């Protein structure tokens, strides 16, 4: 549904130096998928969004939505394609002097819908986002979460095929974040949308995404379904998805991080850990992510016997790394 091929964007920098913001991105998000894009500041996330909405022309490579490449479209066709992409932002930017209903109706007015059509569609949309009966409220009378609901309704007004969400919950508290992510999943389920979420919060990825891409200096550092990346134990995304607090080991001891996925029975792992001589478990988690059981344990062992302990643990099929 969303297909990026060899996407490259180079900006002219200061002193004639070039800034490579995107360096050959290949990415496919299937119809109905919720895909997360994560990466540090400057990784290229905003540039990616601007290329997807054709606000920015790629230096090379293609962006295609539903098989239609954006480059080479005429002005009219491009406008039509843009309407197939709804945008949800961190700061909703509602028109303060207009009611929630008028804000949602705005893109419908621009698209030339009649008054009757607008009223009916706005009612449906407010209902869809859980704001039935709140259409007459002004933005100042709405909570942050309710404003974001209005923003989502507005983004859905033109019946897009794709919803691009740029840090949709960064300004919200954790309860409201969970509700808004639940809503995004719900509209995906009901309307069959394809959703791309740019976020710096792994909690968002865990909660709502089916798949995820880590961008690093304009390149894809890692990409896959949540189950795949969570099971790729030593990887950056696996560590970020299932993270443990760092805790330095005492002198003469080292910490081994033991990671495993559903293929290895938890009981067997725990038995192997318990059998290690003079072992202590300092932290750990065993949970189900995208239907796959994943576990991570930090075990502290004497330095002198650490290599032997690691070998014994690996023998049961787990991934073991010494951590600082
Ligand atoms: N218009 C521009 N002109 C020159 N350089 C740019 C421009 N826009 C972005 N860049 C550079 O491209 C790189 C990627 O920037 P981008 O804003 O896409 O990253 P980001 O991952 O969205 O970061 P953040 O999370 O801070 O928004 C950075 O090095 C940035 O300085």
Automatic annotation (TrEMBL):
Gene Ontology cellular component list: plasma membrane
Ranges for domain ABC transporter: 2-242
A Pfam family hit: ABC_tran
SUPFAM superfamilies in the record: P-loop containing nucleoside triphosphate hydrolases (SSF52540)
Keyword annotations from UniProtKB, A to Z: Amino-acid transport, ATP-binding, Cell membrane, Membrane, Nucleotide-binding, Translocase, Transport
Protein species of origin: Georgenia satyanarayanai
Gene3D superfamilies linked to this entry: P-loop containing nucleotide triphosphate hydrolases
Described function: Part of the ABC transporter FtsEX involved in cellular division. Has ATPase activity.
Name of this protein: D-methionine transport system ATP-binding protein
Example of a GO MF term: ATP hydrolysis activity
UniProt record, GO biological process: amino acid transport
Taxonomic superkingdom: Bacteria
Family per similarity comment: Belongs to the ABC transporter superfamily.
């Amino acid at each position: 549904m969303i297909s990026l091929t060899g996407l490259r964007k180079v900006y002219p920098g200061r002193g004639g130096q070039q800034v490579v913001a995107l360096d050959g991105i290949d990415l496919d998000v299937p119809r109905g998928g919720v895909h997360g894009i994560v990466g540090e500041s400057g990784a290229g996330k905003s540039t990616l969004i601007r290329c997807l909405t054709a606000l920015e022309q790629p230096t090379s490579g293609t962006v295609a939505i539903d098989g239609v490449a954006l480059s080479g479209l005429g002005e009219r066709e491009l406008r039509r394609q843009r309407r197939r992409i709804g945008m949800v932002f961190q700061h909703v930017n509602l028109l303060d002097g207009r009611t929630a209903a008028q804000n949602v109706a705005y893109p419908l007015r621009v698209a030339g819908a009649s008054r009757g059509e607008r009223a009916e569609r706005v009612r449906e949309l407010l209902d869809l986002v859980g704001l039935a009966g709140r259409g007459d409220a002004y933005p100042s009378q709405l909570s942050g979460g309710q404003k974001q609901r209005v923003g989502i309704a507005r983004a859905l007004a033109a019946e897009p095929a794709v919803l691009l969400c740029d840090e949709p919950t960064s300004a919200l508290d954790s309860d409201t974040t969970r509700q808004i992510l639940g809503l995004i999943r719900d509209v995906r389920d009901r309307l069959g949308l394809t959703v791309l979420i740019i976020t710096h919060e792994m909690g968002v990825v865990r909660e709502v995404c089916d798949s995820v891409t880590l961008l690093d200096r304009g390149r894809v550092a890692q990409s896959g379904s949540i189950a795949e990346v969570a099971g790729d134990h030593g990887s950056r995304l696996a560590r970020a998805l299932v993270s443990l607090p760092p805790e330095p080991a005492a002198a003469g001891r080292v910490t081994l991080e033991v990671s495993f996925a559903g293929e290895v029975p938890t009981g067997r792992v725990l038995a192997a850990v318990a059998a290690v001589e003079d072992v202590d478990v300092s932290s750990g988690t065993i949970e189900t992510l995208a239907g796959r059981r994943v576990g991570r344990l930090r075990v502290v062992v004497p330095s002198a016997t650490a290599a032997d302990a690691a070998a014994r643990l690996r023998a049961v099929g787990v991934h073991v790394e010494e951590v600082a």
